[in-house]
Specification:
The chain is an alpha/beta fold and about 250 residues long. The protein contains 6 helices and 14 strands. The termini are close together.
Length: about 250
C-alpha cells in the first residue's frame, strides 16, 4: 500500500494493484475566496498543488467522500480523464454525471472494485445545527485479500460512527482529516488535536495518517500544532503527518 498526500485531503493511493485518486481539489493557490464566516481572509487554497498531481489524472478509480469544494472542485472535474470510474456517496452522483463522467457508482454500503471491497462508513461533519447544515459525509474502508485494511475517515469529528468503523474493520491504517476546520461560531467540523488523540487511544492497533492541514483558511490546526500536541501526549510515534507530495508506504 502506497499513499501519497497531494494536498489537503487529496490522496493518490496504490492499493492491491489499483490506483485510486481520493477527494481531488486541483485549484491553483489563491484561486478561491476565503471560507465564509471564517476567522481570516486568506484566499484558498493556501498553497500550490505539487507537480506530482499531474501523475494522477487517469487513475483506475476516483473516490470522492462528499462534494464540498475542498474535496471536489471544477479544476479537478476538468483535468481528470472522463472515462475514470467514480465512486461516491448516494445523492452525489448527478454532480459527476453533469461534469461528464459516465461511469458513476454511489456506494450504498459495500461494492467490489477489481478485487477490492469498498465499504462506506458514516461520520459527523460537526455538531449541532452547523453539523446538520454541512450535510452528509462519508468515509470508506478498502479491503483486499492479502492486504491490510485501509480506513479513509473523511470529513468527520471523533464520533460514534468513527468508533463503530474502527471496531468493525480494525484497519491497519486510518487516514483522518485533521486541521480543526471551523467557523467563527460553533465547534470544529473536522478533527482537531483532541480528536486525533482519541483515535490513537481508542484504536492502538491502527497507524494514523493525518492530512487536511495547512491548505484551507479555516483549518486552524497546523501540522506543527498537531505534532507538538501528539508529542506531549506520547502519541507522535503512532501518527504520520506527511508534507504535500510525500509518500507514506505501508
Amino acid at each position: 500500500m502506497n499513499i501519497q498526500l497531494l494536498r489537503h485531503a487529496t490522496l493518490g493511493l496504490t492499493y492491491a494493484g489499483i490506483t485510486i485518486l481520493v477527494d481531488p481539489m486541483f485549484s491553483d493557490a489563491g484561486a478561491n475566496p476565503p471560507i465564509v464566516n471564517s476567522a481570516n481572509d486568506r484566499r484558498n487554497p493556501l498553497v500550490p498543488l505539487p507537480d506530482a498531481a499531474s501523475g494522477w489524472l487517469a487513475p483506475d478509480a476516483l473516490l470522492v467522500t462528499h462534494l464540498h469544494r475542498d474535496h471536489w472542485d471544477d479544476a479537478a472535474a476538468a483535468a481528470i480523464a472522463k472515462e475514470t470510474p467514480v465512486l461516491c456517496q448516494p445523492g452525489d452522483e448527478a454532480a459527476f454525471q453533469a461534469a461528464g463522467f459516465a461511469d458513476v457508482t454511489p456506494v450504498e454500503r459495500t461494492l467490489q472494485l477489481r478485487g477490492i471491497t469498498v465499504t462506506r462508513t458514516g461520520g459527523r461533519h460537526g455538531t449541532g445545527e452547523i453539523g446538520e447544515r454541512m450535510g452528509p459525509v462519508s468515509g470508506f474502508v478498502l479491503q483486499a485479500e492479502g492486504h491490510p485494511a485501509l480506513y479513509i475517515a473523511g470529513d468527520t469529528i471523533w464520533c460514534d460512527e468513527v468508533a463503530e468503523a474502527l471496531d468493525a474493520f480494525r484497519p491497519a491504517v486510518t487516514i483522518v482529516n485533521a486541521g480543526g476546520a471551523r467557523f467563527t461560531v460553533g465547534d470544529p467540523i473536522t478533527m482537531n488535536e483532541d480528536d486525533v488523540i482519541q483515535v490513537c487511544r481508542y484504536a492502538p492497533y491502527t497507524k494514523v495518517i493525518a492530512v487536511h492541514m495547512d491548505s484551507i483558511n479555516h483549518c486552524l490546526v497546523t501540522r506543527a500544532d498537531l505534532r507538538a500536541r501528539l508529542e506531549a501526549e506520547g502519541c507522535l510515534d503512532r501518527v504520520s503527518l506527511p508534507e504535500d507530495g510525500a509518500f507514506v508506504c505501508i
